[in-house]
Amino acid sequence: MNELELFTKKQDFLVCVDSDGCAMDTMDCKHIHCFGPCAISEWELQEQQKEILDYWNQVNLYTMTRGINRFLALEKVLEWVDATYMPIEGLSTFSAWVKGAKELSNAAVKAQYEKTGEPFFKKALCWSQAVNKAIGELPEELKKPFEGVRQGLEAVHAQADVAIVSSANREAVLEEWERFALMDSVDICLTQSDGSKAHCIGEMLKKGYAPEHVLMVGDAPGDQKAAEKNGVFYYPILVKRETESWENLVSEALPRFLAGSYGGAYQAQVIERFLKNLS
Predict the structure, then answer these.
(1) DSSP state of 141
(2) pTM, 2 dp
């Protein structure tokens, strides 16, 4: 049995927390030093490197597509390269698959390559594996939680079950959270290999939580959509205002959530603030 199957609800409330860019100050460095450069290397795009890396960072960090799955990001950026600079062989087959795949992970890409023999899937897998290797080699000082996260998680865990819900690689998430003893305030860790964030929240709801007793804490539109798809609340960690966001979670949002006054006007207010911050 896996961790999700073994999990049992302990408290009436559940708070789901994303990792990269939300709890961990790792999103910028991973994209700037790992994701983009590995794509440049795998597809030999050195000639247009600056422009492509700038576009990669816009897609993944600073706009409404912030935080999308790595394979969706790869498809989006390479479609732009294909239209702007040069044809990318096999991209159309990958695009058709990635837009309808139930799971977007290394294992799913590997299975698709074994099924079809399409070289693009092998390249996408090699790229993703290279990204994981590069992330593992990042200096430890670049992989740390935002200020206020430890205190925030402790305050939340005192009154609610806590689940990590991340689209990142499981080994990387656990290594980072364990190094800073954040797992002491976590009940379950759900990552890329467990399915999409929306799927993971849905599976947690099956454990007996009322939707109005579940809060998703994230930093990207995909986190908001995952919450909305399951009819649960969403609290945003604002880009460039992460410490302030964690402080507000403890002082304002969490008490409202526990008291049943989070929905309606307050939920609309925090979402409006979130969308303005990314536009």
Answers:
(1) G
(2) 0.79
